[in-house]
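Quiz preparation item.
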């Protein structure tokens, strides 16, 4: 559904407060945009301060209710600042979406230790400790809540030169499953989504990206950010309060057949 039509829907996130990391552009921005369009207050994070400011301004011009905290989403002080700021400005935290992540390609035989630990620190550490900090706030509020982790199809299928990245994405899905035990008693759901190829500002830098993925995706095209955001919103909405510990693949059917984009 086009974003411009979201305003015609009921404001199902009215009164809800969400934190979204890595949201200056791409999927993260679209999630924030759709949350705000549906009445949520949004704390938007990106590592790039100018991008954070620009993204917040865009959302506020159209919907309002958005504030920003720039910084590294794997930094524990930034994570706590996000929770503190959301609580200070909007009164509570109901939704936390750990969207921030990095992709560092590299041949397994030559993959450097610093790249390996950077991917783990950002993708796993940032997600784990955002979930922890947000859940602590939700537990204190006694109002329940929803946490969403950002996995990937690379956590389901092998992808050339992405061993470390794919490993972190598979681990996030196990984290969502494991935390059901500790979060359910506090009425907090935790799930993951696993996007496939998606057209974003980063991927369109590859002039062959859309054509290649359109050819090998059963639905005939890669995703756009709205496809991913709409699934994300469902899983953190009141419509999904009995769904937890699950991972949803959003890839137009690619993982069912898994042809390589490299033509191998």
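Solution:
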């Amino acid at each position: 559904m086009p974003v411009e039509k979201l305003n015609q829907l009921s404001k199902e996130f009215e009164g809800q407060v969400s934190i979204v990391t890595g949201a200056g552009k791409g999927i993260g921005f679209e999630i924030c945009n759709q949350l705000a369009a549906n009445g949520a207050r949004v704390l938007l994070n990106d590592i790039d301060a100018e991008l954070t400011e620009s993204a917040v301004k865009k959302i506020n011009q159209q919907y309002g209710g958005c504030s920003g905290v720039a910084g590294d989403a794997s930094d524990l002080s930034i994570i706590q600042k996000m929770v503190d700021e959301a609580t200070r400005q909007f009164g509570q935290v109901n939704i936390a979406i750990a969207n921030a992540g990095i992709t560092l390609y590299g041949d397994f035989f030559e993959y450097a230790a610093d790249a390996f630990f950077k991917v783990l620190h950002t993708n796993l550490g940032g997600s784990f400790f955002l979930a922890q900090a947000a859940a602590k706030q939700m537990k204190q509020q006694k109002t329940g809540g929803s946490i969403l982790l950002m996995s990937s199809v690379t956590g389901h299928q092998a992808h050339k030169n992405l061993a470390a990245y794919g490993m972190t994405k598979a681990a996030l899905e196990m984290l969502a499953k494991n935390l059901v035990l500790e979060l359910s008693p506090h009425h907090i759901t935790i799930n993951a989504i696993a996007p496939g190829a998606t057209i974003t500002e980063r991927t369109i830098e590859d002039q062959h990206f859309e054509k290649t993925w359109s050819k090998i995706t059963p639905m005939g095209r890669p995703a756009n950010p709205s496809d991913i955001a709409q699934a994300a919103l469902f899983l953190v909405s009141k419509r999904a309060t009995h769904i937890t510990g699950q991972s949803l693949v959003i890839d137009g059917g690619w993982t069912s057949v898994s042809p390589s984009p490299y033509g191998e």
